[in-house]
Design a protein that fits this description.
The protein is an alpha+beta fold. It has a single domain (4-341), classed as Chorismate synthase, AroC fold (4-Layer Sandwich). Helices cover 27% and strands 21% of the residues. Strands 1-2-3-7-4 form a five-stranded antiparallel β-sheet, covered by helices on one side. Strands 9-8-10-16-11 form a five-stranded antiparallel β-sheet. Strand 1 and strand 2 form a beta hairpin. It is globular. 40% of the residues are buried.
Length: 348
């Protein structure tokens, strides 16, 4: 199992869902960066939606190294989060007990039956907690340079929220969603989504959805062609989030239904002398390199697994993972952006 993402910044996740703790080590962060612990804790708390009634009892990270007097030292930053013990599953699982739609079978096949079967720990969504921690750290460093990433629920099943403006999305639009218990732009539609999730839970069903993310003020020239593109880095981290089943940038798959003149993003020079595009079908990235337009992407999240042979009600928090994964997508984008920004002139 690969638990290390190694670009200019290295991220290594350790621990398991049923272990005493789960944590992360982040290497090659710029030294001297101020870490606001209140903002860090607030970001981690977004992983738990009060509206959906889910969350972990302990989301406060314990920083073990790499920070002194609230400043990064340049040494590897190590942090862990304590797990709340759960009742252990049976010591063995037979194919008949493999959960539909889960990684029980594939994990057993990959690790020759020796993987820990308790809560499918190697594939548990608890690994998103240390991912959020790393993304929160990277986000603070980026924001001091005026770069902001934000995400919201674009849809739950067939109910849609208002999308970000792909051309003119601004700082206020990105930050305002972070403060909401249910991260949507249109609150009325958000409450309808939450009600649909509750109804699905009562029927023993689950729902998927789409998360939209935008990063603003990313300068042109970040990333590289072919295998080290900005899109490549974001995709690697986003697909490390359990439940993610699809990703598109800008117009994405809609571009396949356009003709060339519709998909083109014409350039112009604004009043401040910056080269921009009138539209943003390319999602802020061309040839793996940022264009200076907002970096926009959509992430598809599949419905959580249902309990085989049971049609009874389930917990609301088990009926849809989309709300809790919104900050996880934002965190993944933060990590990828900072990794590429390290090479940007005069960034550090």
């Amino acid at each position: 199992m690969s638990s290390i993402w190694n670009n200019r910044i290295s991220v290594s996740i350790f621990g398991e869902a049923q272990a005493p703790a789960i944590g992360i080590t982040i290497d090659n962060l710029p030294p001297g960066e101020y870490i606001n612990t209140e903002e860090l804790t607030a970001f981690m708390a977004r992983r738990s939606s009060r509206v959906m009634g889910n969350g972990y009892e302990n989301t406060v990270p314990h920083i073990m190294s790499g920070v002194i007097n609230e400043r990064t030292t340049g040494m590897p930053l190590c942090a862990f989060l304590q797990n709340t013990p759960k009742p252990s599953a049976p010591a063995e699982k037979t194919p008949a007990l493999m959960r539909t739609g889960h990684a029980d079978y594939t994990g057993a096949a990959r690790y020759k039956g020796f993987c820990d079967v308790r809560d499918s720990v190697g594939f548990s969504d608890r690994i998103t907690l240390p991912l959020c921690f790393a993304g929160a750290i990277c986000g603070q460093i980026l924001q001091r340079r005026g770069i902001y990433a934000g995400a919201h629920i674009l849809s739950i099943h067939n109910m849609k929220d208002n999308p970000f403006d792909p051309v003119n999305v601004g700082r206020d639009a990105v930050l305002s969603v972070r403060k909401k218990d249910f991260p949507v732009i249109n609150d009325r539609r958000g409450w309808t989504m939450a009600e649909n999730i509750r109804k699905a839970a009562e029927a023993g069903e689950t729902l998927g959805g789409i998360i939209e993310c935008a990063a603003i003020n990313v300068p042109a020239g970040i990333g590289s062609p072919v295998f080290d593109g900005l899109e490549n880095s974001i995709a690697q981290l986003v697909f490390g989030i359990p439940g993610v089943s699809g990703l598109e940038f800008g117009a994405g798959f809609s571009a396949a239904r356009m003709i060339g003149s519709q998909n083109n993003d014409d350039y112009y020079v604004n009043d401040h002398g910056y080269i921009l595009t009138k539209t943003n079908n390319h999602g802020g990235v061309l040839g793996g390199i940022s264009s200076g337009m907002p970096v926009t992407l959509k992430v598809a999240v599949k419905p959580p697994l249902t309990k085989s042979g049971s049609s009874g009600a389930i917990k609301v928090s088990e009926a849809c993972s989309v709300p809790s994964l919104v900050p996880c997508v934002e965190a993944a984008v933060n990590i990828a952006l900072l990794s590429h920004m390290i090479d940007y002139p005069d960034f550090c």
